[in-house]
Protein 1
Amino acid sequence: MAFCVLAVFRLSVKGESLMATYGWLFDPKRCIDCKACEAACKQWNGVETGIDVRYRRVRAVERGEFPQVSVQYLSLSCNHCEAATCLRVCPTKAIFRRQDGIVLIQEETCVGCGLCAKFCPYQAMQLNWQRRKMEKCTMCSPRIDAGLPPACTTVCPTRALMWGEWDQIKDQGVDQVENFSPPMLTKPAIRFVTTEWKG
Amino acid sequence: MMTRLDRARWFQMAGAGFLSPDANVLKAPLDSLRETEWGEEASRLLQWLESGDPLDLQREFVRLFLSPTGAVLPPWQSAREDPPRLMGPAHESATRWFARWGVAPRTPGEPADHLGLLLNFAGFLLEQEASAEELAAFHQDHLTWVPAFCERVAAEARHPFLAHLASLAGRLTAQRLEETAP
Amino acid sequence: MPLSRRDWIRLSSVTGAGLFGGQSLFGQFFQPAAAGPSAQTRTLVTACGLCDSACGMQATVTDNVLKFLQGLPGDQHGNGGICAKGASAISTAYDPDRLKYPMKRTNPHKDLTADPGWVRITWDEALTTISQRFGGYLSQFGKESLLFVSRNSPELWSRFMNAIGVVNRVDHNDVCYMVDRIVQRYTMGPHTFAYDFANSKYILLFGWDLLARNKVVFCHQMMAAKEGGAKVVSFNPMYSATARVADEWYPIRPGGDLAVILAIIQVLLNENLFDRDFVGNYTNFAEYEGQIRENFQKYTPEWAEKESDVPAADIRRIAREFGERRPAVAPLHKKTIGANHANATQIAHAIAVLNILAGTIDRPGGRYFPRTISIPGVDAIYPPPSYPSKTGRRVDGRNLLPLAHEANNGMFSTLADGMLNKFPGMIRGVFWQNYSLGGFPSPRHIAEALKSVEFMVVMDILPVDAALLADIVLPSTMFLEGSDLISRTNNAKSPQVVVRQPVISAPFETRSIGWLAVELGKRLAPDYFRTDSGAWISPSVLLDEKTKRAGLANSFAEFRSIGMVTKEQPFVPRTTFATASGKCQIYVPEFAQRGYAPLPEWKPKRDLPSAEYPFFLLTYIPGVHRRNSTQNNKVLHEMMPENSVIMHPSAAARLGLGEGTPAVVRSRAGQITLPVHLSQTLRPDCVLVAHGFGHVSRALTLAGGKGARDADLIPDQTIEEILAAGNFGGSGCIMDAAVAVEAAG
């Protein structure tokens, strides 16, 4: 596995990549694990339920021991990486990148082999075993094309999950937090706000 | 092979049967269907419709399709999807089909992809001499699920009228709509 | 335009003879309609109806099919966001398990497992049958023979119940906010859940856990508080999303909150750290100062530490901070503490005192009364004849709790005892609306009681367990299909009204409870459902009238297109309060007059751990579910399909339990079996079970048979037990149980 990742990494360095136009900005301290983003994603994209296909997922990770305990919440989806490994390992070339950097799966070409899932560090690739196809977050590209933000970001009640132009976002936060795989391999289009509350 | 118009009548009768299994609605149509190729089937349906306690038929109809404490086989195409739902793509597609032909269900609260409405409308398309392409498209959009569904209804039904209605509807839809005799 | 041949055939087939000679079979089910698909997409404003926050929503609808729900910019409640429950409401609207048509039972044998033998009936038959049965009981057995398990809203429904003189209306508020409502009524005025967190500098949370409940209106305000530099301190036996934003978290012993609050008050009084201006001018402190100081003197932080496990030094420091960092507030909300234990009334009173001493009642940064636009009610628009007196015995014994009786709420926790033991056979007809058996302590007792009634009507959106025992089932619309004017009260420093409008049309033959009120009213109490001109009251005309008289628009249709009205106004703090004295009352003379303690006193919770039941039971409502009503929603079901018994790893290890091990949880009331989930987020002496699961009915395709009911562990009560416990606010005690846990055999 380590060898494969390295090989892909080298490939990705050589391969040409389109720069991200849009990206996510996530503020973990503001997330309350409400999962409104997950629900909005399901509804707008009409994602099937009951087969554990989730384009976006809020993860809760407990740390420490009672009573010195804390919980980290991370709402994550596909990060539309600038050096996406999924795209490079797909044996049928079903994964492609739009001009604006959004990574999409061409359904007709996908054979549901799941190789992309093995190489995605962020568990973004979802196997729909009923249809034998891989699915994932499209950043709601049809909404973006219509001038609307992705569905998940429209409902977030605490503004923990934000989205916008990558040029505006990429310097607003850090590229790495605990429980988020190191970004240097794939260059995910996400930043994390780690500043403390003003108080 | 059944004529187009006879087939249209059978579709409309079957559709009506799944919407309202009521002697007041179905007696006259079944009477007239006794002269068709499936005349004997019409006679049997008529007999089952009129014999016994009408409440038994109503109870069984509700148990199968509408029970407020768990219907056995909800008769909407969207409810056959996995996971089941109402007003899914099949409802939207049926609504578009109806609108294109300038008709709409009289019961506005009923989703357009109810089995009875779809069968009834299939009969209407046959009656209207819709083109083979249109018939094929409607069959593909809305009737491919019906034979398997009707087989389950026929197996589950505890009333002979509904069991037989279902097996006839299954036979009707097992043959593609566009493969109707002129 | 001349008809084409196709048009001509079509019309004859729909309206004329068709294929069957004398009639058109197609035309019986179809009618001519405008040709051609419209594929029109619209965005409509509406208000959520899942909880009483009623966040504003934008609904995207294509050809009468709802596609997407999102927040409404400018809405004070949702702040442009909504929660997962609101965002998933589409999946409830389109749940194939929804109740669709009125049905009547033909099998007289009632049992949760027997086939009721349903047949479909028309609404007319349903209305006639209900009117005849209820009318018969009223005339033969009197008003006490009917039980309405139903909220006191909407107002048309409440008018109907008043018009026929329903004595026994029972709602869930004894397991919700009734205690707080009673205490507020006598300490500061009408009940409010509005807190001005954004301007608070110090926030003390006792069990208040609304971030974890995803009450959006409070979530974004708490974020604003944190951004504004507020310090937040949370006391809760479990660490949750709320404790996570707190600067300090104390895993307090269940029931010990009261001790800590009393001790904080003691420090505030002893060190004179209260707001002297407010307390001197707007409270009855001066009048009762001696009694007040004496009452709290004994509650030292050192004493409180023994009851709560919170260090005395921390209590003292927090009290000082609370007194000095103004404005400060201590919110209280419903289930999170207001109804948990037998000492809930004392807790609510102590928290009221804390807020009064902080001087923040109806002040910036405190608990305040919502500013609303006055919308006239149906009784103002169509004044009714005087209502009949409500004479008869009260089945739940609420009349023995005068304050609860006056509040006109409750009582779930004593209903089974009343029906089965106190007044067997008295209740003959039941109307049951929008409630779940799992919402009752000891639901098996309620199910037993319901089997004993002669005639029961259930109205709901979904096939709830109670429908299995019904004689008539009525299908209800949901909020996405309804119309109303929603006045906002949880974040309302300026008034804001949002429309609720049908973003989709009512499916099948579903009807609203307001419509039912008028239809039953016409049949059972016609004089109360006519206008001056003699015409029947029409819900839509009434709504037009309310819209006009409230100055929102010229008609409801016009307000539908406006969507939301906000009247920005300066916040002018109250100088008089709606109590008997016109002041905030620390000492409540009305309590003393009735023989209750006029000042909050220490009382332990009722059921304490013992050798037989060594753990405290805690319950919670998970943020992705709305009480018992959303477990069958496919999106929310996928997020959380069932519950578990959550334990600290050390406690589980002692019992030989690991992650996923099936365990039996037992209390004196009953037992449930659930898999164990290990977590470091709660006290080792507590066991935590999520509320809302364990629906019996398999008619709920997704939720039926999943998880277990926490309520099966919660003892129901007799009114005598409540009186003996000094629980004069009537808390339903929804967490007051101790349990044992063992591996399932």
Note: Residues 611 and 740 of chain C are 9 Å apart (CA to CA).
Protein 2
Amino acid sequence: MLRYIGKRLLIMLITLWLISTLTFILMNSIPGDPFTSEKKLPESTLENLKAQYGLDKPLPMQYVVYMNNLIHGDLGFSIKNVNRSVNDMLADGFPVSAQLGAQAMILAIFAGILMGTVAALRQNRMSDYSLMVLAVIGLSIPNFVIAPLFQKYFGLNWELLPIAGWGNFDQTILPSIALAFTPLALVTRLMRSSMLEVLGQDYIRTARAKGLPPIRVISFHTLRNAIIPVITLIGPLTAAILTGSFVVEKIFSIPGIGKYFVESIINRDYPVIMGATIFFSAFLILMNFLVDLAYGYIDPRIKLGKKEA
Amino acid sequence: MMRSKRRMTQLVAAFTVLSMVFLAACGGGSSQASDDQVLDIGMIVSEPPSLDPAKAQDSQSGHILRHVLEGLVNIDKDGNPKPGIAKEWEVSDDGKEITFHLRDATWSNGDPVTAEDFEYAWKRVLNPDTGAIYAYQLFYLKNGEEYNAGEAEADEVGVDAVDDKTLKVELKQPTPYFISLTAFYTLLPVNKDVVEENGKWAANADTYVGNGAFTLDVWEHDSKIELKKNEDYWNADKVKLSKINVPFNQEEQTAYQLFKSGKLDYGDKNSLPVDLIPELVEKGEVETKKKLGSYSYIFNLEEEPFDNKKIRKAFALAIDRKKIVEDVTQGGEAPSNGWVPWGMPDPANGEEWVKQHGQYQKSSAQPEKAKELLEEGMEEEGIDKLPEITLDYNTDDSHKKIAEALQQMWKKHLDVDVKLQNSEWKVFLEKQSNGDFQMSRQGWLPDYIDPMTYLDMYTTESDQNKANWHNEEYDELIEKAKSTNDQKKRSKLMHEAEEILMEEMPIIPIYFYTEFILQKDHVKNVIYKKDASFDFREAYLTEE
Amino acid sequence: MAIPAEKFERAPKRAVDIETLRRPSLTYWQDVWNRLKQNKLAMAGLFMIILLVAMAIAGPFMQPYTYYEQDLGDGKNISPSGGHWFGTDELGRDVFVRTWYGARISLTIGVVAALIDLIIGVIYGGISGYRGGRTDEVMMRIVDVLWGLPYLLVVILLLVVMGPGVLTIIIALTATGWLNMARLVRGQVLQLKEQEYVMASQTLGASTDWLMSKHLIPNTLGPIIVMLTFTVPNAIFAEAFLSFLGLGVQAPVASWGTMINDALVVVLSDEWWRLFFPAFFLSLTLLAFNALGDGLRDALDPKMRK
């Protein structure tokens, strides 16, 4: 097992290197640079600016410099936000995004598993149908619509919760719920479907026939076997949600890192593009690794890393 | 069976209700400072990229900078310079030398503000190693451009601290508007000792040293800025606000809701969702002010069919500008009658420039004449069918609406199908500067308060001439206007130049901008100025 | 306890014609259809989809307006009435016509994207999970790489290289869409292939294709269908995002995604119809797909066979 984990860690590093290299190539191939502006700058000024950020050097050299700094844990300085290091930007914003994301994920996972289980047990009855309608609404109304509606009703009209901002717990409620909407719908629907799958299996019927109380059947037998698809999706979903949502953070004026993923690209802020991408990718790769480990734990028959079948 | 079903349903319901109650219960009361002279403003969209004048690059940072730093002059309500750190100044007869006399003022760390701070600050902007984006704002100085390009030494630059309180400026050419330009954020002073000691002095509130009416008290990155009244400011008696809170709200819609709920007292267009503007302007909830700015479309003269003047004019005449401002933008904008926008003073007499010349173009469409010109133009080119025409704009709801309306007007009046193409901002700019377009959107705000900022951009030499339009007569007029200090003569030459521009029509000016102001009734005396800046220095709040 | 290898004898491939062990496959789909027909909700979903498609085709002709025709005078922001059933937008264009014209684009995009995701995702995930070991490792790392790349950057580059067009939109929509599907299928296959009946079939000499198409994939259908019903709205909103970059449909053509995007203002103003109609029909579409999907899952489930 340890050997497997060691091997996987090495592969993770290679994957990460591949992602950062590809991103470096991608960002240098799209039109525009950090200094493209509506009022074209004089040549001399542009040259000065490029020299200052090392962008005057040939690309391969810039790449080597970047990679060298990266190995030493230095993500460089933002070009747009002068004098702010990318390390600081991520370190300041990540706890915010992570708190928000964690609240949303907890809500989505627990409520989703519960609702999905209920829907499966009550298949084709009223509660199943209403949960489906609820999930569909969650899917078809994107959070850029939900969020302003929340602000308008809970914040402005009923004055129950703050409209925007960050700092107190009450300011996290609306964004967490807005962020949880889609994952909640996804978890509910998936859980329902795989529960149905498992409920039809012989061993469940046996367990039921044996007279085991339904709760026991559900928690000990069914849930464990039905949860694999949910786990599969929760991995990358967690990585995505914990590293911040551009839309929700923007609407609720939350100082998280979600905006860096979009704005760094809009601004062609190269160091931030790289930093944000590497950060997210590392998270994602790690989550997918944990998901694989979880498979083996949930169903010991699943063996990864062994010889091909 | 029936029972367990109900129980399940109840469980779900209970869970939902419980979680809501739990979440709501955890919400504490919000804290509102009780000090009555605290103003909350909603104009800053996001983290200012830099509060170092040499590195600042956007109007957002400018709003903050103007309150924490003070330059040689301030701009008054009418756009004229009034004493700031300089209590007076003299201009030489040829207009090429200005001597500023500084008053006694101090930095927030107690140091006196000296002429040397200004000399240092300006040379720092021009220094190639600084990498200042707006270095060109100081190219008016003798050897300024050369120093920035590494072709002259710092000592040769035309700015010199004669003594602690006297700053002598030598200009390349007579530049009557240079005095007001010293209020622009790139030209604000920095404390030499502080900057030399710590290059990152401007990155955080605790190392920031200013000389303005307010001090940078709190800067929570990506979240908010708080300004506190500077008791040592030379004109502190006039400053009535004790604090200005500046939360960053990226979403206009959010800022607007905060304003409605009373969390913000004052806002501009950044606190207003574009689509809501017409409704609010009509209801009078939003005040509109003339803003110096010209919205236009540029033709690419190197691409067919707009290399033909008659075809260009046909497209321009088919536009109903009145409809655009009254039914599409609906924010009190004015149909442009020329390229230089409203609000711009004519240097000859200080009156509105746009009222000193005839209607270069009418507000409503002239379909017959347009159709006629199009046919003539096509005949000149020897074509009986126009090539496919694409209109480029950068992604934005209001640009999209205008483009859609134009498309319909051309269809209706000229029977021409125009394709629309939007692009992400920098892709759009690259296309524009590479000449990879036929018609492309352009919004233009002035660099300084003088018609020249709109006119010298269409000379052959100019980097900003994206239409690829060349006209010798025009170039000559601009050159002449630039070398004289006689305001009447300058004005005449510039009017002549604009007439040529509008006759040749490398651009179609569409409308002049407005600024939108949202303010609570208890906010008084905030001044919106011609340089698009807001002055909170003398603002105050009354009892609600 | 080990049994020497030579004691085993490889079962000849297809020694028994497996076909004869199952019911004839012709009746399989008939069977499915019969079961589906009995599911009222699923049939309602199917009917709704047919209705929506019919409206997408006929809707734009049911009113004397076009999707682009403007009325900048008094014709702006009219609330739903006899003249304009769904009202008009901020440029005086008929929302009814625009909604159904938009339905053409959004429904096509949703379905095409879902199908492509389905095909790539199932094949890729199936192979990865079934082969396991090093193949799985490599294939899943490729998924990680594609997932890690900034989508916005990829799309901008795609746009610059290929220019706007239908093919570019489809590539942009499916570039990352199938990743979830692939991982989902792989996870299921990893689990299923260790189950007794799969081993039994293997021992009987079933080929990989056979195992995949008859055992592994059918048993993964539940999550696959759920995932598919999610791909549809995702693709519809992704199209709006692509429009933002200049890649989606060009104005004045609207899709449901761009209509919902543009109508956000109604959250604060009174012109509810601009947001309501596209959002309502989008919800209805999803509801129909979900109902049909659920019914299909039940109908396809071999265990539900009576």
Note: Residues 86-121 of chain A form the longest helix (36 residues).
Protein 3
Amino acid sequence: MSWEFGAAVALIISSAIIGLPIGHAMLASSVFYLLLQGQDMSIAFEQMLTGLYGSYVLLAIPLFIFAADLMNVGSLSDRLLDFCRALVGRFRGGLGHVNVVSSLIFSGMSGSAIADAVGMGRIIINLMTKDGKYPGAYAGAITAASAIIGPIIPPSIPMVLYALVSDTSIGFLFLGGVVPGLILGVLLMAMNAWQARIHDYPVEDPVPLREMPRITLRAVPALLMPVILLVGIYGGITTPTEAAALAALYAFLVSTVFYRSVTLRMAYQTVRQSAKSTAAVGFLIAGALAFNYVVTIEQVPNVIRGALGETELTRWSFLLMVNAMLLLLGCLLEANAILLVIVPIFLPTAVALGVDPVHFGVIVVVNTMIGLATPPYGLLLFVVTSITRSPIRDTIRHLLPFLAIMIAGLAIITFLPELVLWLPRLYGYNG
Amino acid sequence: QEKPTLRLSSVVSENDIRAEAFAEIAEAVSDSFDMQVFNGATLVAQGSEMTSIQRGNLEMGLIAPQTIAEQIPAWSIVTSAYLFSDAAHLKATFDSDVGEELNAMAADAGIHVLAPVYFGTRQVNLAPEKEIMKPEDLSGITMRMPGGDAWQFLGEAIGANPTPLAYAEVYTALQTGAIDGQDNPLPNDYNMKFYEVTSQIVLTGHLIGFDVLAISKELWDGFTPEQQETLQSAVDAAIAKSTQRHLDREAELVQFFKDEGLKVYEPDRIAFRDFAQKKYLESEFAASWPDGMVDRINALAE
Amino acid sequence: MTTPSRPIRTLRGLAEAVPAILLATMFLCFIIQVFMRYVMNSPVGWTVEICVIAWLWILLWGQSVSAEESDEIRFDIVYGSARPAVRRWFRVAFSVVLVGIYAWSLPALWDFVTFMKIQKTSYLDIRFNWVYSIALVFSVVSILRYAWIFWGALSGRDTGQSSIEDIGRKDFSE
Ligand code: NA
Ligand code: NA
């Protein structure tokens, strides 16, 4: 690795710390590297352009964002919440359970943790904090924790990114996330039950059972969404990328034609908002593509592989090390950036040590998603505190037990690859 | 004097036979060149190798002839179905005056061709059990072909309904029935385990698959004759070996797929060939082909 | 903040309509693609090409022409908690970095984009200099935007409060 590389990394870090948007920091530093090297400075832009142009799978991202935005604008989210409330609201800490279960179902339609937190999260936080039932910080904490599950259960934008950098099948990655997502959901509910006992959180008035059919019926269109996606992908109708469009079409039809809750004007606002979000995420990817060239030309993966080779790692110690490192990075870095820059560096070693790429992908995604909620730099943390308006310090305090149990869950997923690979194998995956 | 740095960008995976060949070349020329191989399209994006060389930002590339044809339409002739009969015919053509002509066009665009790199003969691989003897039998069969209109046209030229799809998604798509089939050389069918989700391989042999190993023309012209000789002979040795290994592998795999319970058979290749050549000659592609070149290439077949 | 004047709002509305229309187009193309393959059994390929071009333009347009500071993802632990006076100098520093680097590389970028007329897209035969021209728009507009930020910070008119007060309400997605 050259001194020019060191200078480029230093520029990324320093300019990002003083507030230059991360995408610009990566792109500008790549140009800076080429300038120092005396190479053609257009290479950074070329890498960005050809990388974006050639990555067809990335097109799922804008469509998954659009589908989730439509779900939130239409009343699908509200109906879903009513259903979850009737289902698990009757237990101690009921609304906490509702929070987790609604996230589990919503995650079957949304590929994004942030979309879950700003959509479903906002509604349920209001429910939880109304009449002072739960402290805002606790509502925020469990919302952030449960939103982590969003991209672990398919569909998933981070998994699309992982597939891009690893050449793994999106179809199998999606299947690999199902069981781990459910496990994490159960763990969160257990933690919520425990916290509810400690803090003596209230029980909701049980929804009468005779109400159930009506509430369920109202929620059916929302509940059907994950089914539509699965049938689309695994029934041979669409590719995983196209399934995102099918999901958006479904959300659009349900909210405009069926519920009539979305006007054309609202639909336009939604497209506009989705395009904005798309550009923000996409530009991070663009910056990472430019910087990846620098990482490749400096042969960084080889250097790290060489260094790892000398330490005689076993498969488990390697996974342990990667997990620890990703959790650490997750406190500081943006999740997409981690996926795009770090995965290509470690995947070759993982494969050489006999780690299955789908298993590795699920581990990495779970890990980076936990990173979204870890202080100091966690977007989920910022999102929920901006909704609850409670001090970030209190939110973090309430979040810690949930993070602890999530990390325990991550350990389980890491050391029992069968949990991840069982479903993909059932569907023909050979790993 | 410092050794010239040669960075080679290719899309092949690290454990591919061709990756070994590139490593052998790098090793063989190590006294004269610092050759660095970047496989898996990690250095430049797939399809950008040629422009990167032209702009002086890359020294060597494994370039698909379809990419060259985007700039030099005449090159689309070597991407057409049933042009070469086998790997030997491919090599003979590039060694002949036809090859000289094609290479001269590439040289005008700033690319010096070192060798065509054979990677297998494309065969049709289908999930449905329907027997395929003529191109008409493929009518209505949705077949995944690589993206881009040259590839899609190849699918039409053998009578199928071509559709583009990311390579990593082909397995699932075959299994779910989103597509009926795909076309690839047998080693790819093996590596991607397509044989698990398909029922038959039709040995259409519709395209002799190859890429072009190329180096910057400007760079090449600046080498001493000794340097040129060193590089060229290392390339020739490694690629000849790689070609033979591909051929052996393909022969082996026919038996393997049969043992796996697939039907592997040869259709009426003459019918396919006539159908495809007619399609090509009627297409816009043929308009750019040098007069008489098809006949000259045909004449080189043994 | 003062409310922008009417022409400014109209321009902003138009600027934001571009990525919105492109996203809607992308959505439609995907639907057509599935419909043609699954229902009509007659797959098309040109839809993919429109989608990747739209994707490229959505992001580069969206992060330059129609970007607001709150749309940009930044690392805001230090930046967000800095005193306004300090943040002002942060803004001076990072805008100098960005304007300097993008301006310096602009001729090279121009050279690359114009060179790419040598290739055409596969289905629609659009020359790549047109496809990639958005990178020039992106670079020029970014230079102007950040020069404006530089000037605002230097003259003390803007401390970047607007870029942090919305933290968390940005609806970007992981
Ligand atoms: Na939740
Ligand atoms: Na999800």
Note: The pocket of sodium ion (ligand 2) is lined by residues A 107, 110-111, 150-151, 153-156 (CB under 6 Å).
